[in-house]
Design brief:
Helix content: 55-70%
Mean pLDDT: 79
Low-confidence stretches: 1-7
Strand order of the largest sheet: 1-9-8
Number of domains: 3
Number of helices: 10
Shape: globular
Distance between the termini: 39 Å
Number of strands: 10
Length: 354
Amino acid sequence: MTTTVSAEEVVIIGTGGLNLDLMLPIIVGIITSLLLWRFLLPSSLSNLQVAFEIDDGFYEVHRLTKNRSDALKIIKPRPVLIGVLLYLMAMAGILIIVTDVVDDSLIWNRGPTYYQPVLVITGLLLALPIVLSPFISLYAQISRKSAADSIVTLREWFLNVLSVGIVITVLIIPVAYLGLTEYNSIEDDTVDSMRNEWSGPGEFNYDTSMNSFVCIDTRGIHSPLAVIDVLDEDSCNSQSQLITDPVTQEVEDERYGKWVSNSDRIEINRFLIMIEWISLGLLVFMLPTIVAYGRIMGASWNMLVRNKYRTIRGNPTPIDPDKPSIIKRFNSTILVIFLGTMPLAAVNGIITLA
């Protein structure tokens, strides 16, 4: 039998309320990241090979690493090391978020409770990779120096940095202009809606309408929010739906009607527009990273799927001529599943932002 509970408010505890259970997410994030750094990452990069298809079914194979010590050597060059550190920072931030969400419901049996310093640290761990990765990815594509060649003249460095700045600026300016244009048009669009909704005596009165209240549907994520046709605050506040918590599977009574003045309604719609265009701006800002990742995955996706599928079936492949073990076949199965869902996840992300 399903239990119905009311949605609980998010609690953020300041620095004065420190206790161990609030620090658990960051402890888990740090320990897991260290394990990734010392064990999982070197293991995943050991026995690393690069294959070039020279004819149908024929590959020219180059072995880059044979064991863990070889794997540690290839991540020592400074550009590679910076990329690895950014990856570990992002993974630590994600692990902290996941632990923070899960432990409240499954371990401590409480509502969403967050420790302010942990939120700040999580924000920094996620923000630095997000901000730096487009610049680093674009710099690597523009620069003609390899990761192993760390000797770059001051002139080359300056021209590369200038080129990166120009490309990023050219990408961001159109998005910023269109977003600002739509943001500034929100008041006019909302006033037009207010004219259509006007039910007062005589002609439309701007000041009176601005001070009057309407019921908006807060379930929307796009501006302008829909208006619910009710006459009083009580009816608005009683608008609700039952939703299932994805972690606890408990059914919560979510109230989605909000009684606001038309002036506040304009500010809410402006906020939603701002969020929409910031999201789109981040997508465009991350475009160099997406392109770099897409080039790598696009060049190797077909070969990876075909060869890992053969590994799943227990057959040797041109890039792995030895008969695969059970563990290798299991790992290949997981990789094929990930490879199959990658295009779907990418398309879903673009459609969601669009």
